[in-house]
Design goal:
451 residues; 72% helix; globular; transmembrane helix; cell membrane; transport; AI-2E-like; membrane
Length: 451
């Protein structure tokens, strides 16, 4: 009885494959050669990386990028990409500055006038909102025109006195140059005068072009003022409609969060504008009275200059203070100049330690570096308008970003509960959690509740 031959199992080997004709393209065996690699793991120097339940086989590299260099290069191209995008944005803003600056000024003015218009229409129900808007706008324009008229009138009336004082000061300087250490004679004075006249004659073309440029600048300023006024009317009358139109471009999933952040940002701008206006008025009145008591001419124009300089924190006070000290030095000598320096130091201390903490409070207070550095950047990028708009922009961004990262401003918060015209909405944590919200009474209530 013959047993059936068992079926071959396993690989018959390369010799059998060649004999049966299987895989005719397989190269012949070479003694000592393991043959072609069956897997990537057969490659020389291959390594296996264990990632969870599966093993990933990678071929060995002749060189590898260091981890630190890989991270640095990744950060570098991302930073360059962001810098390029920022440069493009700044370039486009520079091209549209004739439109962008009036719109930003209209937003700042609306933060001051819109709360008053809404309060007027809510307090007196029979006053339509359009009429309340018109009344507030006319009142604001009248105040601005009256201030500028008073400043110009005071400057014109005080100019002869200042001219007389300036002439006397120049005469004294000439006498000192003749009798002082320099010992200049009349011929040297004549030579200096001739050089000045020759310089003016050689610069006539430049002066003429500058004058034409000034005329063109006046025309541009008038056009931008009209655009600011036109935009301000609609921002005050129906700023909510404009804001809803802007929100329509935000994705639906993030629209409520963006709405809350925008409302809080505008509320911070309302608080900043009010407080800055009151602080500037207090500084101007205090400095004006002090300059008048010292006997400095042009006290009212200098007070107005201090008022407008207060809208540029830190740098504005320095620049306007230098102008006031120079006028006092020309008109009254070194004694008056020192008195003006002491006066301005007192005004700045009153502002820094009393007015700003009382009016601004902790809700929209910025670090000094967050004030000086944006002003310097704005001055470099856009000149005086950039310096004026830097701090309000930082205030709005600070409040908006804080709202975006605040957990309580999540999707569960109804945007309608945030009043954009109330400065207390800018930083709710300082008004809901801080004991200073209700003074000592709130502090005692918290202590009583804790006990």
């Amino acid at each position: 009885m013959s047993m059936p031959s068992p079926e071959p199992t396993g690989d018959p080997g390369p010799t059998a494959r060649r004999r049966t004709g299987a895989e005719p393209d397989t190269p012949p065996d070479i003694p000592g050669d393991p043959g072609p690699p069956k897997d990537i793991g057969d490659l020389p120097g291959a390594k296996t990386v264990d990632r969870g339940p599966e093993a990933v086989i990678r071929p060995a590299r002749r060189w590898e990028v260091p981890v630190a260099l890989e991270i640095a290069s990744g950060l570098a191209w991302r930073v360059l990409l962001l810098a390029t995008a920022g440069a493009i944005v700044v370039y486009v803003m520079g091209l549209l500055s004739a439109v962008l600056v009036p719109v930003v000024l209209a937003v700042i003015a609306a933060s001051l006038l819109a709360p008053e218009a809404h309060a007027l229409s809510r307090r007196w129900r029979h006053v339509p909102h359009a009429l309340a808007t018109a009344l507030v706008l006319f009142a604001g324009i009248a105040v601005v025109v009256a201030v500028f008229y008073g400043v110009v009138l005071a400057f014109i009336s005080g100019l002869p006195d200042l001219t007389t004082q300036l002439t006397a000061s120049l005469t004294g300087i000439q006498g000192w140059l003749r009798t002082g250490p320099l010992g200049l004679n009349n011929e040297q004075f004549t030579a200096i005068g001739n050089q000045a006249i020759a310089y003016l004659q050689s610069s006539q073309a430049t002066l003429a072009s500058s004058a034409l440029g000034a005329v063109g600048t006046v025309g541009e300023l008038f056009t931008e003022m009209l655009l600011t006024l036109f935009t301000l009317i609609f921002f005050v009358y129906d700023g909510g409609l404009v804001w809803r139109f802007v929100l329509s471009g935000v994705p639906k999933a993030a629209r409520n969060r963006a709405d809350v952040a925008g409302r809080r940002a505008f509320a911070s701008l309302v608080g900043y504008t009010r407080a800055t206006l009151l602080v500037a008025a207090a500084d101007a009145v205090t400095a004006g009275v002090g300059l008048w008591l010292i006997g400095v001419p042009l006290a009212v124009p200098l007070a107005a200059l201090i008022f407008f300089g207060a809208f540029v924190p830190t740098l504005g006070a320095v620049v306007t203070g230098v102008v006031a000290v120079l006028v006092a030095l020309v008109s009254g000598g070194l004694t008056d100049a020192l008195l003006v320096v002491l006066l301005l130091i007192a005004v700045q201390n009153i502002e820094g330690y009393i007015l700003q903490p009382l009016l601004l409070g902790r809700s929209i207070k910025l670090h000094p570096l967050a004030v000086v550095l944006p002003i310097a950047c704005g001055l470099v990028i856009a000149g005086i308008p950039g310096a004026l708009l830097a701090v309000p922009l930082v205030t709005v961004l600070d409040s908006g970003i804080r709202s975006l990262v605040r957990p309580s401003d999540g999707p569960g918060l109804d945007p309608a509960t945030v009043d954009p015209l109330d400065p207390r909405s800018a930083r709710p944590e300082w008004h809901e959690d801080a004991p200073t919200r209700t003074g000592l009474r709130g502090l005692f209530r918290r202590r009583g509740a804790s006990t």
